[in-house]
Protein 1
Amino acid sequence: MRRVAPALKRPGARVLDICCGTGDLVLALQRSSGGPVLGSDFCHPMLLAAREKVGRRSAAAALFESDALQLPVRDGSLDLLTVAFGFRNLANYAAGLAEMRRVLRPGGMAAILEFTQPPNAAFAAVYHFYSRRILPWIGGALSGSRDAYTYLPESVRKFPRAPELAEDMRRAGFSDVEFEYFTGGIVALHLGRVG
Ligand SMILES: C[S@@+](CC[C@H](N)C(=O)[O-])C[C@H]1O[C@@H](n2cnc3c(N)ncnc32)[C@H](O)[C@@H]1O
């Protein structure tokens, strides 16, 4: 929250969390924001679960069903757009960034929290061994679905590395782009502003 506070704490800030899933980040943003927070996802059952959770705890949050590549939101109307662990699943990253850029107003900020590949080669080797060999085995044994636990490391492997995603954001028109690794580089937070 600290990193997005400049946009989040603006008086009357308009905030949207896309690919919101069951709404945890919507609730966290709502706790820190002065104004209402919107959440969107294209998966109806996810939104129903989010509505149940968010509705119980916050009257000021609103949820709607939408593809992140075609948001029903006016050009230049948001102060902050966030996406946590959803951007990697988009069918077209350039189109996703262009849509994020379109809905943010001048001075607005985009924040992308996503799994990435650790920059440290030794740690990356251990992590890759764990995520490709051990995680699918444990996940498959516990859940009965090995595929779900194979998809995660495979999709992370195909996803642009953090410096490449930062470059993609610049190409999409974001300025002051920066990123920070978390959890040994397994996760990265990218921030970009609209000038
Ligand atoms: C791993 S979940 C993350 C949910 C939530 N952001 C969180 O951090 O708990 C990914 C979510 O992205 C949504 N999603 C994936 N592609 C999408 C798209 N093109 N448009 C809207 N939602 C999408 C999925 O329906 C799912 O709810």
Note: The beta strands are 15-18, 37-41, 61-65, 78-84, 104-115, 175-182, 187-193.
Protein 2
Amino acid sequence: MADTAEIVVVGAGMAGIAAVYHLAARRAARRVVLIDEREPLTLTSDKGTQAYRNWWPGPDATMLRYMTRSIDLLEEMADESGNAFRLNRRGYVFVTADEEGVDRLRATAREVSAFGMGELREHAGDASSYQPAPAEGFARQPNGADLLDGTAAHHAFPGLTPDTGAALHVRRAGWFNAIALGAWMLKRALGAGVTFVRDRVTAMDTDGGRVRGVRLASGARIDTARVAIAAGPVLPDVLRMLDLELPLFQELHAKLTLRDTRRVVDRAIPFLIWNDPVELPWTDQERATLRAEPDGERLLLPFPGGVHVRPIDGPHGDELYIIWTYDIEPRAFAWPPRFDRHYGEVAIRGLARMLPAVKAYFGHGDRGFVDGGYYCKTRENRPLVGPLPVDGAYVLGALSGYGIMGSHAGADLLAAHLTNARLPEYAKWFLPSRYDDAGYRAEIERWGANVGQL
Ligand SMILES: Cc1cc2nc3c(=O)[nH]c(=O)nc-3n(C[C@H](O)[C@H](O)[C@H](O)COP(=O)(O)OP(=O)(O)OC[C@H]3O[C@@H](n4cnc5c(N)ncnc54)[C@H](O)[C@@H]3O)c2cc1C
């Protein structure tokens, strides 16, 4: 095992793997060591929906620019790998039945369009002017977004509820296989000389305010002057090894994997998101049963909007990912996580508001598989990328619910910091030192931690 390194990267999730790929395979950094006690990508990075979008409403264009860079990198890697990770361009479709919701969709789309997403096109009636997305591939597709009125939305997506008021189709968006992408990047990084060490970092040695090395659970030590922390939801613990604290917290997010054995959901749909609050459709008898349960009453209250769905494989599979984060209370990282025992049923009933045919699975909530993980977030839901206040220490983290799509711009930026390359204009907004500015700290309290979150 290497006992010295130019750069040590802690954590082999999507962020750490993208970091070593950008450092070694794209910027020719040498003697880079990646450390994780787990199999690569198995803490948070294999638990999500693996989707991406150039849709980032407010408060300004910063996140949209960052994510646009990330998607440029995803497309470059897809081209270079022969699309080994099946990047598609099916898009994100936000759906509402609410009249004001239609106005809000239009206003938000205009705002994101002004930030640089691309033009907003409107379609009514038979949707003849609307270009549907292909099920596979990403080349030669429109950018921007299409706003379809209720009739046009039904032409485009016949499974939507009859009272759909509008559907907004964001076009530079879709999903891919995050494990295949991570494996491809890791292979390229190893081929460029990166060493992967299966161990846990337990301490960091510093001297005179500078990083000198990392200590591992096995008892080994690696001398290094530079360490980049990409520890996902464990980031606060690893920062504490350097006596650092940053404004971070975690949210637990679940997803349901459900087999659509009755084929009630079209396999060619984009990533569909229901925007409006939902009252779950329980029968009188179910209501009575829930009222009698200690925590059942909450399931009778209105739930927030945001339930979403996407098919997992192409036309031949039958699994769906269904996600609904109705509980975003901050909570401490604990592994393995425990989820609401009603999650599966709640997700199915919520989804049926948008896709009524899903009623076929009422009562099947516990036949699906529920898993998930933690979003590690900053107060303003922007990532941390760059140098820390200890010389030689860097971070790539707080990637919230966008780390699969957003690790690439983050790793590119981290590698630019580490190789003294020119930094992009947005770099300053992701520096940990941004919190030194009291004016910025006050401003982000107004933005809130859910800006840009589905
Ligand atoms: C339900 C759900 C849905 C999601 N959907 C999407 C989506 O559609 N699109 C999207 O872009 N993102 C999505 N995300 C978010 C995305 O999964 C995360 O942002 C991303 O996986 C974070 O990657 P990471 O590398 O920072 O963390 P992780 O994947 O958690 O990796 C961190 C690694 O660090 C290692 N580590 C920690 N401490 C140490 C130590 N001391 N020594 C050695 N190793 C250490 C851990 O073992 C782990 O392997 C979703 C997340 C969830 C939970």
Note: The radius of gyration is 22 Å.
Protein 3
Amino acid sequence: MNQNTAPFWDALLAYASREVLPFHTPGHKLKAQAFTNLRSVLGEGLFSLDPSDEIENAELNHDFEQALHLAEQLAAELFGARQSLFLVNGTTGGIHYLLTPTTGTVLIPRFSHQAVYSAMVLAQGQAAYLPCAYDPQWLIPLPPSVTAVQQALEELQPQALVITHPTYYGSVSALDEVGRLTEKHGVLLFVDEAHGGHFHFSKDLPAPALSCGADAVVQSTHKTLGSLTQTSMLHSRNDSWFSKVVQAQRVLQTTSPSLIFYAVLDEVRRELALQGPALVNRALELAATCTSSLAAIKGVEVLPKHLQADPTKIVFSLRQLGLTGIEVERILRVDYNIQVELSDYYNVLALISIGDTASSITSLVQAVQDLAARRGHLGGTPLPRHTMDFPDLPPAALSLREGFFREKEEIPLHCAVGRISGAFLTPYPPGVPVIVPGEEFTADVVEHLLWCAEIGWPIRGLLAGQKVLALKDNGGRCRTVR
Ligand SMILES: Cc1ncc(COP(=O)(O)O)c(C=O)c1O
């Protein structure tokens, strides 16, 4: 196929250039006459490219369905898939389409994005969890080891395994070995590659999941590759599962997808086919400069190489100077007008992408240099070492889906031991749920959550007055409540 073409982009531009008089949706009638501010900031061009898909007309060469199919085939060819889908509800949507058709056990690392959990609320399949391990020095969640995967595959004989590749912090599992194991056990391997779309374009990055035997992957093209926010791609190598995914997409996706989103995905794919390796290698060079410059600053530590498989995710810490990652994020924003991707107790993560320049890197390095020098003068003492004892996974009384939809009530957290949770309780960051709907509050879970609340660690799902949602009928089980 000719990768230097963008059939959907071209079809949309061709339609706009005809200036057809629209007596159809959308209500802005491709001009947004009534909205002066919108027109002046976004430009009329944006509206002219935003017809609904009702205008399909093969005779006039506006067969958008055909153009989309071609554009998706080009994407599949580029990324080494058999089929691809353009997604307008992000990787979240793609993960939902992948997992909704499951009917058996789906093995998921506890450190999975909420999209994986919400997919398992929709699915008939049942989630089983691989517990999360943490690096003790950096307190970042680690991807599951091959041994952990192997044991779980043997014990649970799941229908599918979901792996996040890379994690938010840029770490990866030995995915080729995991792929060999899933193949041996006849288990579907689905990969949340939200943060790894760029892997395809450089040998200096971890291998992309499709090349490690994944049946299907979902990539947030918007996160690391530069399309518009909300636009992602699903790539598949498994024809029979793909036909289920397409059915799921039909029921779960809007019937009015943005044609601009599709066109942008198509045009981004065209550029990447031509320039992807050069753009990504340039980003890698910038990331290397940034990392070595940050590491050279007194008091700044950078995540060691064995944990940082993706060098474009620069994790650094000023803990030697007494600053938490959360404080560094706030100071960079307030004093230097710089916003990083995330922070936690020790760390800050700065994401470098094909959109960066030498000057953006210099600005970040200078800001950190200045901050470190200021802090050094004030004689910052190192942060106290945090050791975290994460509780074991609590027992599941009900499936995630059942727990999620049962009637709930608010109860104080300290009275929750023995009750069944109706919600996710997730200290954030890093976003690993301590308990999920359908699981029973153990004393360890309650104590850990109380401790997080006491030290001011934000807990998603914890309600005002330190209350939590528990099932009203406790899942049909009668338990003594402390
Ligand atoms: C690991 C991971 N998976 C999935 C998603 C969902 O991606 P999207 O925002 O494209 O829906 C995210 C978003 O942050 C993520 O970090």
Note: Residues 90-92, 113, 115, 164, 168, 192, 194-195, 220, 232 surround pyridoxal-5'-phosphate (CB under 6 Å).
Protein 4
Amino acid sequence: MERSGNETDRRLDGNAAGGLLAEAFCVEMTTAVVVCAGCGAEAVVAELLRYGHEMGAILRCAGCDTAVVRIARTGDRLWLDLRGAVNLRVSAAP
Ligand SMILES: [Zn+2]
């Protein structure tokens, strides 16, 4: 798919989104609102069902059991898999 000239003019590398990403990930995540990719249900993260394992946790939808959030720690890395979420909304700083 070709991008329009206007869209190309606004293209920067990922560093340009660093401030927004820091704002999005440095918040209380249990109050974030997530939409399940399996059934479309909307819930706050605290309402998901946590299944722990030695490397981290899987948070599943209470309605359809889809793995909405997977988080794991390996050494000095945290892995975050959100493919079970359509989107995740956090409150922006005022
Ligand atoms: Zn669901």
Note: Residues 36, 38-39, 41, 61, 63-64, 66 surround zinc ion (CB under 6 Å).
